[in-house]
Amino acid sequence: xxxxxxxxxxxxxxxxxxxxxxxxxxxxxxxxxxxxxxxxxxxxxxxxxxxxxxxxxxxxxxxxxxxxxxxxxxxxxxxxxxxxxxxxxxxxxxxxxxxxxxxxxxxxxxxxxxxxxxxxxxxxxxxxxxxxxxxxxxxxxxxxxxxxxxxxxxxxxxxxxxxxxxxxxxxxxxxxxxxxxxxxxxxxxxxxxxxxxxxxxxxxxxxxxxxxxxxxxxxxxxxxxxxxxxxxxxxxxxxxxxxxxxxxxxxxxxxxxxxxxxxxxxxxxxxxxxxxxxxxxxxxxxxxxxxxxxxxxxxxxxxxx
Length: 305
Fold this sequence. Notes:
The chain contains 8 helices and 12 strands. It is an alpha+beta fold. The protein has a domain of 193 residues: Nucleotidyltransferase, domain 5 (2-Layer Sandwich). Helix 3 packs across helix 4. It is globular and about 55 Å long.
């Protein structure tokens, strides 16, 4: 795969966005929230958002604060598709996917592109891997570890069921993970630990399953009736702690559409060929994967996994 190193902008022009997000936005008006639809008017067409989970603690950190120490990487990659009247769609894109940049002697992991070319280079790679149109993704958000902790802290805690006991100690980064298996309430630091834990046997496939558990748990929590008044201030807080080209009004519009179907969500993962020892952790995209998933059409429905 040959990727154009020069990044393309991931935001649409203002004239087009005027058609996607109606100008009259309820997020700027006094409101009494009785249902999710009262947050804001939903977008008028499907909107695709690239979410980059960074292994840095805060936006703009020069170091990831992890081991091995170095510049921030993308530790998780998701595409979200939000469309009125349909469940939220989530496509997880494996960070160990092999990509070949022009002029480079050998393939490298998709997760390493963020530190080389930022959001634009990652968006180019994701666009080519999934067959997205040249105008997509429409928006992006880079979410560091600290933002995830703060999100859960704002909610207090969330229900999660780790599939196994998770224990890991790394004194170099002052990291100690100790989670029990089974349903429980987890706080922000514990949720971060679940997202970071990598089982030596299950590897990145296991981490992706943990990320999917987290996505579903967050949706369940956010759609609880008592959480509705928190959504607007929560959106404002998250934008302050992430790097994104979403405005507050746009984020509320996406929340209104994405949560309108309750906690229904369609989660998929971009399929890869089985790992091969000679590839040193890199994995090839399965033939025909993008066409099978249907994300390139801009309106695929997919099937849950």
